[in-house]
Amino acid sequence: MQWSTIAATGVGAVLGVLATLVADHVRWRRDLTEGDRETLSTAFTEYLTVLSEARDAFTRAEPSPERVGTGHIAIGEHGVYTAQHRLELVAERPLVEKAGLATLSVLDFHDVVVAGHASDSGEYVHAWRAVRQARAALIEEMRTVLKRR
After folding, report:
1. What is the dihedral of CA 48, 39, 85, 63, to 10 degrees?
2. What residue spans of 63-121 are helical by DSSP H?
3. Tens-digit pLDDT string for the chain (149 aa)
4. Helices marked H in the chain — which ranges?
């Protein structure tokens, strides 16, 4: 038997094993990235859902000046803080900060509503726009993060 045949067979076997290992690694990274993306997407959707539910509930709140400043209790009852904590575990700081701003804007909206400002008042409109702007900035950041994954 010739040495060249044995060497060629050995080199071919090593290359085959290396190619399989590289393909498995690429597949593993892709699966990991898809899993991360799915985790983020789920956390994003949950947070936006509970935040919107809280905001919508606040639009129906009765004026009650003694409840001004207690929005954190109401927003907690809607699960916003729980969803926000999940975001903090899976998302990067810029997104978490925008989520915090969105939560604060909904808290401010709560205070405007329970203070008795009508839906056509300047205070109400300003607070409503702030909620929409904070939410839009957050959604844009979420889209950017998901595109990178």
Report:
1. 10
2. 71-77, 80-90, 93-114
3. 577 777 777 777 666 666 665 655 556 565 456 778 888 999 999 999 999 999 999 999 899 988 888 888 989 999 999 999 999 999 999 999 999 999 999 999 999 999 999 999 999 999 999 999 999 999 999 999 988 86
4. 3-59, 71-77, 80-90, 93-114, 122-148
Based on its alpha-carbon atoms, the radius of gyration of the chain, rounded to whole angstroms, reads: 26
First CA to last CA across the chain, in angstroms?
52
> Model-level pTM?
0.77
Domains of the chain: 36-148 (1.20.120)
Instruction: Residue 48: name the closest of 126, 147, 129, 132 by CA.
Output: 132
- Distance CA(69)–CA(75), nearest Å, equals 11
Q: Can you tell me which residue has the tokens 């700081």?
A: 93
Which residue is it, tokens 């989520």?
99
CA distance 61 to 24: 55
In the block, residue with structure tokens 């959707």: 45
Take residue 101 and report the two structure tokens written for it. 């701003």
Identity of residue 99: A
